[in-house]
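Before a colleague's protein record goes any further, I have to sign it off. Would you go through it and say whether the fold makes sense for this chain? Take the sequence as given and treat only the tokens as open to question. The record follows directly below this note.
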Amino acid sequence: PPGQVATLILPADVSWSEGASPAAPPILPPLVPPAGERIEAVCRALRGAGNAAILLGGRALREPGLMAAARVASATGARLICEVFPARFERGAGLPSVERLAYVPELASTQLAGLTHLILADAKSPVTFFAYPGKDSDLVPSGCDVLELAEPAGDPVAALEAVASAIGSGSVDGLLSPARRPQAPTGALTGDSVCQAIGAVLPEGAIISDEAQTSGVKLAAATAGAPRHDLLALTGGAIGQGLPVAVGAAIACPDRPVLALVADGSSLYTIQSLWTMAREGLDVTVVIFNNRSYGILNVELSRVGARAAGPKARAQLDLGDPDVDFVSLARGFGIPASQADSGEDLVAALRVAFARPGPHLVEVVIPTMFTPGQLRAMPYALGALGKLPRPLAAALKRRLYP
């Protein structure tokens, strides 16, 4: 640690030369133990006046790190926030409730407003996902001190536990997510009701590969009290990673159900992953959020000021005419598939998919998240957030991005 890209360059004759013997397992260097001065600095910040938050990422987002962070939060009142796109996030009933930093910069700035101390636990100091005209890319509020709890090659879990021991922790019961599920949806489907259906039936031990960027905004709220599960989020702007990540998760954990949440646009980058799922008999349930549009790219275009596009330009992000038939595509790759047209259909399809091992695909045709008028108004509405009283801005953020 920390994880990084490793490149192996081999000569061409490796293809026809005699094979070598397998290498011995690598001896990994031990994690750097928490430094006393870092622990002391964090404890001083947490004991002092002002508002503090702990930004969790990486190894700190698994149960030992989450529980240690909850002990610290219980003793100090510090808020627990996780990265926008966590690599692996253990969630569900009985684990600490952690708010995820919003993807939209104005909403993220609202979350972080008023902080005087931001403590990084295996996370980087937050910046915006893209650069935007006339906006600061640094999300840390002015006057907020940023403290790194552990070195990049350090042990963030041991560091959190050391802080909890040094500062004296109380009960974490009030910080744990209670076991609860949303009511199964009925009637016409939207992105929100699809998330509601997932929360209603998600099985114990599921692994979610989440690429539902716009339509899946309510997923976190809908699954907070679901049975324990892992969430694998985006690694950046890698459109199309949802299906391959689901393949990897299913191969790594063949005894656990995998749920891939992808969209019509993103899935088409790596649709051949369906064939791999069928060939290997992987236990993956794929839900295609089909709104006939590149929703996230439409949002980003409006954010950078490209709002006066004509019909030909808008058509570049339109995925209709002809509509893609994902049910036929999946069946062509050898995967059982169906289209859900209502909440009742979707819940029934998900129950069948989770009950029967092997790959399944469910297509849900939903309306676009934002109308053209809302997209045009979005930059102005978001720009006004910073001018609102902090409690009102925070309430609006929770409603838009719970």
